[in-house]
């Protein structure tokens, strides 16, 4: 995939990488970058050899938010009609796990993108926050909703209303990120972890991701119905037969993703 201007992509083994790539502006996300990220996610979702997607940033930020220069002069009508940030909603439709690796700043729209990831690792120098309030706007790509669902109203209000930046340690304590690493180990450790998921039977991974995301929006009763449906469905897969047969024969399973 070479036809992107603002992201770098590569497939290594079973992992598909997306690196935000405007380091001179701390990977500020412009409208075209939003389209490119989504386009690449969809391509990886279609590509059978890719099992898990890893999202990172080039340089000293994951992303320092939406591109303020691009946003500074637009009006409400343009925001309503052309704002690509609403595409972040489509990220939830990506079926493969998306693992974020955050070094440096993840602010505003960058933090919102990180919150769309299924698992999040960070360098211990990472800083998260929603500085929108200090610019006379507010988060517009899920910040008020996703952060609140994740850490609760009282805590979310604190960060959303002040625009203060939270450290990686604080983000880990609040359950926003899975684990922190030394900056120089972040990618290596993220890949090591991601590899564990890539080795699992991909239909199970897909069904588990789908059911777990439902838990965020549905009641437990509705979510349970969904979980049971996916659970039953997996019993029609070759990998379920192979996984259980391999267990009984005391050998390593040979999964085919079917
Ligand atoms: N948009 C455009 N350019 C940005 C940017 C952004 N969000 N963030 C940083 N840059 C640019 C800076 O203008 C600067 O460019 P120049 O070298 O040409 O001057 C370059 O990146 C490096 O930034 P700094 O010199 O400011 O670096 P620093 O280390 O002193 O500060 C920072 C880093 C604290 C992250 C600071 O850059 C900053 O506050 N950035 C803006 C963060 C922000 O407000 N983000 C929210 C945007 S709104 C949003 O995201 C809305 C939404 O919900 C969709």
TrEMBL record:
Coiled coil: none annotated. InterPro entries: ClpP/crotonase-like_dom_sf, Enoyl-CoA_hyd/isom_CS, Enoyl-CoA_hydra/iso, Enoyl-CoA_hydra_C. It comes from the Bacteria. Keywords: Lyase. Belongs to the enoyl-CoA hydratase/isomerase family. This is Enoyl-CoA hydratase-related protein.
């Amino acid at each position: 995939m070479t036809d992107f201007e603002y992201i770098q992509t590569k497939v290594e083994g079973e992992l598909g990488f997306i690196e935000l790539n405007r380091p001179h502006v701390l990977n500020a996300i412009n409208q075209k970058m939003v389209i490119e990220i989504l386009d690449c996610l969809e391509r990886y979702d279609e590509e059978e050899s890719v099992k898990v997607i890893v999202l990172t940033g080039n340089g000293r930020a994951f992303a320092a938010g939406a591109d303020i220069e691009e946003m500074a002069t637009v009006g409400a009508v343009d925001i309503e009609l052309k704002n690509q940030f609403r595409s972040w909603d489509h990220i939830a439709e990506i079926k493969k796990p998306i693992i974020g690796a955050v070094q440096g700043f993840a602010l505003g729209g960058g933090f919102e993108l990180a919150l769309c990831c299924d698992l999040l690792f960070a360098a211990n120098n990472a800083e998260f926050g929603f500085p929108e309030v200090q610019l006379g706007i507010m988060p517009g790509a899920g910040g008020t909703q996703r952060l609140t669902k994740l850490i609760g109203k009282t805590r979310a209000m604190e960060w959303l209303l002040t625009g203060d930046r939270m450290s990686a340690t604080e983000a880990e304590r609040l359950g926003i990120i899975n684990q922190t690493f030394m900056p120089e180990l972040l990618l290596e450790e993220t890949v090591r972890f991601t590899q564990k998921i890539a080795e699992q039977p991909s239909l199970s991974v897909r069904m588990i991701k789908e059911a777990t995301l439902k838990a965020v929006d549905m009641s437990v009763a509705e979510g349970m119905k969904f979980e049971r449906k996916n659970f039953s469905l997996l019993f029609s897969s070759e990998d379920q037969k192979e996984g259980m047969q391999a267990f009984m024969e005391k050998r390593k399973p040979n999964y085919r993703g079917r």
